[in-house]
Write a structure and sequence with these properties.
The structure holds two protein chains of two kinds. Chain A is mainly alpha-helical. Chain A has 13 helices and no strands. Chain A is elongated, with a radius of gyration of 25 Å. Classes of the chains: A mainly alpha, B alpha/beta. At the A-B interface, helix 2, helix 3, helix 7, helix 11 and helix 12 of A face helix 3, helix 4, helix 6, helix 9 and helix 10 of B.
């Protein structure tokens, strides 16, 4: 047991943490590079930066917009997010581990606040899943991962809370700590590859949208030419109905590869 | 808002298409589509999508949206279509997922690998059919975008989805036929109005105004070196005489030189609704006319999509930062009034007046306060609609759907229901809707719901309030 715990806390933690940081770094860099490319290829390079900043801030600091609609859901979701972001990096016990291995330390949350936020995460995760299951519309648009994520995210919180607040025997303490460590590692390793990547991508959404509406000059003509309709733009009579697929058209993979 | 009753639902979604055509085209949609190649459609859809992603920046957005989409369903509170139907397939996030899932499956490494491993055959004809239906149920009003914590612009996805579909031949006939006349027809405009007919109606309008106001109010045509080139949505010349007279009167009062061009006089650009190639080619026509006449700026009439396409994409396609400035006519009028070059008689309109924000003007906050300030200046009783401004509710005919006559029941019962209730609640006698598309849809709504409210343009009312300086010479 001790061996597995050390493995999860040591090498596996480092691996998961590195995966998270590098994975998130990779998609941020890719997104920014794509945005820069779009901006470069846009002939006017006119972007309403004020609008981009304003709309980004509106959701990052949700004091205004969040409450206007669906206030109950908003409250639950906000509690969930605050706990998720605040507790793991600022829990005194976690900081102690960092200090031991790297010598770095920073200010910790008061224990009572950390406990309160932890409970908030657990309760709100359950409520979010319940809400998803209860509403027929929410159910219709949900994927498996949409149900699993709140539960997976709440697992290290629930097990961590139990370890630090309940009177447990050594065996159950160790078992729960094992759950805590491994679920935490799993979450970190998965973040960059799933919707939780929004933790770093959401602030870039408004920028991406603003640039996506910047169309390159002549793109429409080039698309038609690539598809073999260079001389038959879509507005001509029968432009897309005549006979077999044009010779110049290639398979999707070929077009992508070029 | 209550959802549709079963009877309303049947009426709204009834199709007037002949079943044999729907079967032949394998397309159970409600809008008419010209015949096109049906065989091998999923593959051709993917080809078109690949070609579009290759030559444009849409991949940036698709990639981002596919990663962050959290399916939180907040957008349900904003979408008037969903609020009317209560159908999960009308949740903006569901609609976007139709295309995002194709992107994930066919255009990302993980999707391609997973598809191979699981033996997933990929895009099916059923999915293409569902997209053809779904993307034209959306009015592309982009109100959901305001409410999306992830910042997903579902309107952009609708735009892209329709673009891909149009490249394999699926687009509403109403839009395609108008565009054909505009880009390849003899008259070169969407309403097929020939130049002599245009000149006739302009002369007629001038005579009308002279009779009413006692002064000459001309529509200058082909004036080389005029300051402003004016383009109206061309349907205004058939249906919105009052708007045009108001605009001519404003120019007469300010004395600025302006002109219409007989080389090209249509601001309508359906490219925004279904195809980027159309978008660019229509704007190039405007550029040629502006260069021919040597104007300093382009003024677009009362029309939401025409104004947004020109404002947003004219610089893109027609010269970048050096492109001529583009104004909406309400910006021009507002500016002139602010500068004291246009005088308005206070309380010229005594009945209650309300203002409907066209999505394409208000959603980004471009034109929100200007018309309101003008209306307050000459209307005794101006009342607001709630919500309004950036958060306005779409008329229900946005995204080109208003031009598709065969889906009128859908526009009335689903798209426009929220708007009808909103207008009724204001108790206004006039509803100002400075957009050709909104006007048509709102008039149909007023008829359907028995609203005691006249739908007008801003300049229709303003015409009644302008104080002319009779001494001033026309010119400038």
């Amino acid at each position: 047991m001790e061996f597995w715990l050390e493995l999860g806390r040591g090498p596996l933690f480092r691996l998961a943490f590195a995966l998270m940081v590098l994975g998130l770094g990779r998609i941020v860099v890719l997104t920014l590079a794509g945005a820069l490319e779009a901006w470069r290829r846009s002939p006017d390079r006119m972007v309403d930066w004020r609008q981009v900043v304003r709309r980004t801030a509106e959701w990052l600091i949700p004091v205004n917009r969040l409450w206007r609609r669906r206030p109950l859901y908003s409250t639950i979701s906000l509690a969930f997010h605050i706990g998720l972001l605040a507790v793991p990096p600022f829990l005194a016990a976690h900081i102690l581990l960092w200090e031991r291995s790297t010598g770095l330390s920073w200010a910790a949350l008061p224990q009572a606040a950390a406990d309160g936020l932890t409970l908030a995460v657990i309760v709100s995760a359950l409520l979010l899943v319940t809400g998803r299951l209860a509403g027929s519309t929410a159910r219709a648009i949900s994927r498996r991962q949409d149900y699993l994520w709140p539960l997976l995210l709440a697992t290290p919180f629930a097990s961590g809370y139990a370890c630090s607040n309940l009177r447990l025997g050594p065996a159950s303490y160790q078992a729960l700590m094992l759950v805590h460590v491994y679920s935490g590692d799993l979450v970190m390793a998965l973040i960059p590859f799933t919707k939780i990547a929004h933790c770093v991508l959401a602030p870039l959404s408004q920028l991406v949208t603003a640039l996506a509406w910047k169309f390159p000059v002549g793109a429409g003509d080039r698309v038609a030419a690539t598809l073999g309709y260079g001389d038959r733009p879509s507005w001509l009579e029968g432009a897309r109905s005549a006979g077999p697929a044009p010779a110049a058209a290639r398979s999707a993979q070929e077009v992508c590869a070029r | 808002m209550r959802t549709l009753t079963e009877a309303e639902r049947r009426r709204a979604f009834a199709s007037s298409r002949k079943p044999e055509i729907a079967a032949r085209q394998r397309l159970p949609v409600r809008y008419h589509v010209e015949d096109f190649e049906v065989a091998d459609r999923p593959r051709r859809f993917l080809q078109a999508m690949a070609a579009i992603l290759k030559h444009t920046h849409y991949r940036l957005a698709l990639d981002h949206y596919a990663r962050v989409s959290a399916k939180c369903a907040r957008c349900t509170a904003q979408c008037q279509i969903y609020l009317a139907t209560g159908d999960p397939r009308d949740v903006p996030c569901y609609r976007s997922e139709l295309l995002l899932s194709v992107y994930r499956r066919h255009f990302t490494l993980a999707g391609v690998l997973r598809g191979r491993l699981l033996g997933d055959p990929g895009l099916s004809d059923r999915q293409v059919q569902e997209m053809a239906e779904s993307f034209y149920n959306c009015t592309a009003c982009r109100r959901c975008w305001l409410e999306c914590p992830m910042g997903i612009d579902h309107g952009l996805i609708t735009h892209l989805g329709r673009y891909i579909l149009s490249e394999i031949g699926i687009a509403p006939r109403a839009l395609v036929v108008s565009t054909r006349e505009q880009l390849a027809g003899a008259t070169g405009n969407t309403s097929a109005i020939p130049v002599p007919a245009l000149l006739d109606s302009l002369e007629f309008l001038s005579e009308e105004m002279e009779e009413a106001k006692g002064i000459e109010i001309p529509f200058p045509v082909d004036r080389q070196g005029a300051r402003y080139l004016f383009l109206a949505p061309v349907s205004d010349f058939l249906m919105e005489a009052d708007t045009l007279m108001g605009i001519a009167a404003v120019f007469r009062a300010t004395g600025d030189s302006w002109t219409l061009g007989t080389g090209y006089y249509d601001a309508i650009n359906y490219g925004l609704f279904y195809n980027d190639q159309v978008l660019e080619h229509v704007l190039r026509k405007i550029r040629r006319e502006a260069e021919r006449l040597g104007v300093e700026a382009i003024v677009i009439g009362e029309c939401g999509h025409a104004s947004r396409t020109a404002k947003q994409f004219y610089p893109t396609y027609c010269g970048g930062r050096e492109a001529l400035p583009v104004l909406n006519i309400m910006e021009y009028t507002h500016q002139a009034w602010k500068q004291g070059r246009l005088r308005l008689r206070a309380d010229a309109i005594s009945e209650p007046v309300t203002y409907h924000d066209p999505c394409n003007l208000a959603r980004l906050g471009w034109i929100v306060e200007q018309p309101r300030e003008l209306l307050r200046a000459f209307c005794a009783r101006y009342v607001e609609m709630t919500p309004g401004g950036r958060e306005n509710i779409c008329c229900g005919g946005g995204g080109g759907t208003v031009s598709i006559d065969e889906i009128r029941p859908y526009r009335m019962l689903v798209g426009g229901r929220a708007k009808a209730e909103q207008i009724r609640a204001t108790g206004a006698r006039y509803c100002v809707a400075p957009c050709a598309n909104c006007k048509k849809q709102l008039r149909e709504l007023a008829e359907e719901y028995g609203l005691e409210c006249e739908i007008v343009g801003l300049h229709d009312l303003l015409y009644k309030a302008i104080i002319f300086d009779r001494e001033s010479e026309y010119g400038g």
